């Protein structure tokens, strides 16, 4: 598990906040607590790592409001909801918006510990996937405009001869550009390049 990953607990009931903090710390998690959604949103959320244990009903912004606000800011933090007043529509909405779990009080300690473990695992996998895409995008940015054009046509399945015709260039020139694309993108095959283009959503750009 990532050493920087933190379980952020947001609940406006001090006794619950303290009890959840103690439970998770005993289970070996790094924990930070917060008494309101507003205070949590006011903290530094840049490149935040971990997950959120969040009460649905809070004074001010609700837990569901916080979930929507984080999504609008592109803060991808897995959420485990806890509540003493949950209902089916509320839990369905929370899960539809990406929550890992929706636990109704009183829940067993093991349920929360297990849900937090799942949330942290999801966060770790998502961060790894984003890191891969970030590295690919850095490589892609190093391509010249012409090389990007060639890459776009290669992943569509066009042959060098077809690309040359489409770009009004010689087949030899296209072969050179294609070689540069494969080298700069660190692609071992065309299928490898296609997978990279898919991760970069390049098919949506052309």
List keywords for this structure.
single chain, 206 residues, alpha/beta, five-stranded parallel β-sheet
Q: What this model shows, in words?
A:
The two termini are 39 Å apart. This protein has helices at 14-26, 37-41, 63-72, 88-96, 109-141, 145-154, 160-167, 171-185, 190-199, and strands spanning 6-10, 31-34, 50-55, 79-83, 101-104. Helices cover 55% and strands 12% of the residues. The chain is of the alpha/beta class and 206 residues long. The protein has a five-stranded parallel sheet with strand order 2-1-3-4-5, with helices on both faces. It is elongated and about 75 Å long. Helix 6 (145-154) crosses helix 8 and helix 7 (160-167) crosses helix 8 (171-185). It contains nine helices and five strands.
Low-pLDDT runs of 5+ residues are: none
Give the overall shape, derived from the CA principal axes: elongated
Report the end-to-end length measured between terminal Cα atoms.
Answer: 39 Å
Q: Tell me roughly what share of residues is in helical segments.
A: 40-55%
| Percentage beta strand | 5-15%
**How confident overall, as mean pLDDT?**
91
The major pleated sheet works out as: 5 strands, parallel
Order of SSEs: EHEHEHEHEHHHHH
User: What Rg is obtained from the alpha carbons, in whole angstroms?
Assistant: 23 Å
The count of strands amounts to 5
Count up the helices: 9
Strand arrangement within the widest β-sheet reads 2-1-3-4-5
Alpha-beta content class: alpha/beta
